[in-house]
Each structure stands twice: as C-alpha cells, then as structure tokens.
Specification:
Radius of gyration: 27 Å
CATH architecture of the domain at 1-28 and 76-165: Beta Barrel
Order of helices and strands: EEEEHHEEHEEEHHHH
Helix content: 25-40%
Largest sheet: 7 strands, mixed, barrel
Shape: extended
Strand order of the largest sheet: 1-2-6-9-8-7-5
Number of strands: 9
CATH class of the domain at 1-28 and 76-165: Mainly Beta
Structural class: alpha+beta
Length: about 280
Amino acid sequence: MRAIWKGALTFGLVNVPVKVYSATEDHDLSLHQVHNLDAGRIRYQRTCEVCGQVVAYADIDRAYDDGDKTVVITADDLASLPAERSREIEVVEFVPTEQIDPLLFDKAYYLEPDSMSPKAYVLLRETLENTDRTAIVRFSIRQKTRLAALRVRGEVLVLQTLLWSDEVREAAFPSLDAPVKISDKELELSSSLVDGFAADFEPSAFVDEYQQELRTLVQGKLEKGDAFDTADTFGEAAEEPAGGEVIDLMEALRASVERSKADKAGTADKAKKGKKKASGE
C-alpha cells in the first residue's frame, strides 16, 4: 500500500506522527466505451462553452454558480485556506462508541505510526479499547475539511470519515404513520424464520458473483481470440495526469490533563459569577 497522507494525530499536548492509507479498494473490472463497429475507443473532451476550445486539465479552475453570478475559485485560492494546509488530525472529543450512528460512516483509512517509537500510537489504541470510546477528530484531506471517527480494528487505528449531520436525510414516510397491529403468533413465526437463518457473519463467505462472471467472460473472449489489438483500437494518446517524535509522553499527558482541569474550573467560575451577577450579589 502507498500512503496517501502524512501528518500527526493530536490529542491534548500529545502528538502522534502517522501515515494514512486507504483501507478499502474497488474490485470492479474497469470497462471502456468503444464504437460498436470497429471497437475504437470513445474519448470525452473537456470543451469550453464560450470559446469552443478543448481545455487541458491543468487549465481548469472551479467555480460556484448562485444562479445569477459565477465565482471562479483558483488552485491558489484553495491553497490559501488554512484548513487545507493543516497536517493535523485533531481529536476534539471522546464519545461512547454506541452513540455513533453507522449511517454516518463514510470512507475508511488505516493509520500507521510514522515515528521511531510507536509508544504514543499504542497508548492511544489501548486507551480507546479500555474505555470503549471512539475519538471524534477533525482533519483536512483532498481539499475538504472532514469529521471522522477514530476507532480500533485489531492492532490498527482506523480513521472512518463521517458525513456531516445535514448530509443525512430525514426518513419521513406517511405509510408508517398509521398504527399496525402485529399478533403474537406473527411475531413468533417471524422470530422462528430469523432463527432459521441465524449465523455468525463471515465477510469472506460472500463474493461479487457479477464481477466473477464478467472476468470469466473477458477471459473466454481472450482465449478464443475474440479481441482487438489495444494499440490499434484504443489509440496512442497518453492518459492525462491525475490531478515529530513525542519528546516526553508522560509529561505531555500530565500537562494535557492539567490543562483540561483548568479549562473546566474556569468554565465553572464563569458560571458562578454569572449567577451572582444575575441575582445582584
């Protein structure tokens, strides 16, 4: 695997250098579009609607259209945003694991310790396991500020990006508003059916049968000679380019705990003063 991002995981004053790897991959067979008469590759060109010219990827900026005006956002504009330059995965809170709705989960990444000693990494991993909590973190990747859940999978810390709350649609179906009566017998029979299919989940027991059949079809055509020379039919056009160590872990932990206590004490003092002021004392 190749690391797609390098930075530091931070909680309090503790700094854990890490490398980030994509934890999943797409196994679908990649298919191109071709002309059905001669198998010639069909290519799409990026054409400007104003001047009609074909535009190279390097000359393309982004824009936002509000319906009346269009604002162009250049690569320099994006690079100037502070969040996009950040190389930190910042822990903002530790929450009970069961409070995270699985519907919020998005893409998963593995974190590998990127330092001479993995002690701080292992400490965080074991702390999460022992407290049965998940760290909610904030970081920037691929020009996006993301919220993510930091959890443990075996011996590895996994970063699972989360959807923002306003990205999850509300499920409101009128068909479920009317009361439905379920008899004890129906529930008993339904439970028996569940028992009949009960099993321990083994992901490796399930395969993508469509992709298997597709690969068999492709291999069969290759073996029969039912294929074209790629250099002749797909053309010679080149593909466009795609776009510190922890010095003193114990001291950092102590300082972080003390700072947290001080912040809580300060918040309590402010609350007391607010009450006194409100009562006229």
